[in-house]
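Listing S7. Sequence submitted for prediction.
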Amino acid sequence: MTMDRRTLIKQLGGIGAATAIAGCSVQEDGGDGGGDGGDGGSGGTDSDGSSGTESQGPAGTATAWYSLSESELATRQDIIKEFNEQKRHTIEGADISDLQQKTSSAIPAGEGPQIFDWAHDWAGNTYEQGFIVGQGDQLSVDMNVYTETARQAAKYDGKVIGLPYGAETVTPIVNTDIVDSVPSSVDEMISTIEKHHDPDNGQYGLSYPINSYFTSGWLQAFGGYFFKADSDPQLGIAEDEFVRGLEFIVENFKPYMPKDPKYSPQAAAFNEGNAAITINGPWSLAALNGNDLNYEVIPFPEMSEGTPNPYTGIQLWYFAKAMESGGPSAAAARTFAEWYTTNEDHIRSLAENQGSIPVLKSVAQGDDLPATVQAFSSSVDMGTPMPAHPKMDDVWGPVDSALVKAFNGDATPEQALTTAAKDIRSNW
């Protein structure tokens, strides 16, 4: 099972890379559209971001699937409405509560969408199962309009399997209604959460969901790693450096957090103004803005020992198997994906309102991005892209379980991670 972050986030009901894709299983064989300079076909887009082939052929209707928070969903619906009003083609959007399960059952049955939206770490497994397909030789967009990281994330096995529109990771967010001085180091951050921890009065120093993705910055801070997607994939979760990362979390953060490690209670504590600091992603900002909470997003502070190294993701519009049949529906899906990912107004709006980190170079390289986005971008720069290798799918769940066991005191970090490593290898 992959890291189903957005399904996890949706449980709360109102809440939502500038590094090399070294961890992704990407091959540059030039297939399906060639290399970075030529895998986008003619490379032409209209000034409004639309495909240069948008007006060719009969109009089509395509289905787009996604799994978003309530606040994100309203924006997505507005964007699709604008596309349908402006273009010949029509997109029928659907918010899916369990996108992974639904795509896994619907696509093989020929009932799936033309495109769907998720982070790049699904690429390996979905491609190997035949759920997604390359469309590089059918695209009009020049892939060079995206950052190098985004271009690499959009390819698997040399094929352009989707188009990228944003990067994401988690980073510290400070409640400035409570905290007077934003910490500039991890030591200062720990002192801050200690100072403002008062659970008897419903106030916590830190709210922090405990799962693999959210805690990856500390788990990999001392040289440890989850998984290396080499020719002979390597699992690192039982190594000393990784264990040390979990020990750091349990020793320094657990005492100042709500007792339930799940996303909903942790996020709620900060969203309701009852925590000094949280560590969360850009999808959480809409809820914070709705609560009129004063906050400051900061990059991961410096550590006296180690360096925070969070997992990062690139959001893609994936090309589903239904695209293989071609025709007007496939043209509609490609046109929408190209328009969505190259429309500067939408990309800038997502950055300003939802903290999405742009990967469209004309926006990403501008100097007018909000401070919140710059902070998230800095943490992306510090991080490591999630592996897209199919075997990584077996890593998330057992590590999640190990983290909760260690957090609850049911096992030491070393015991919990050793057990998880055995479970993962048995699944492999």
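Caption to Listing S7: primary sequence and predicted structure tokens for the chain studied. Confidence is low (pLDDT under 50) at residues 6-53. The longest strand covers residues 311-319.
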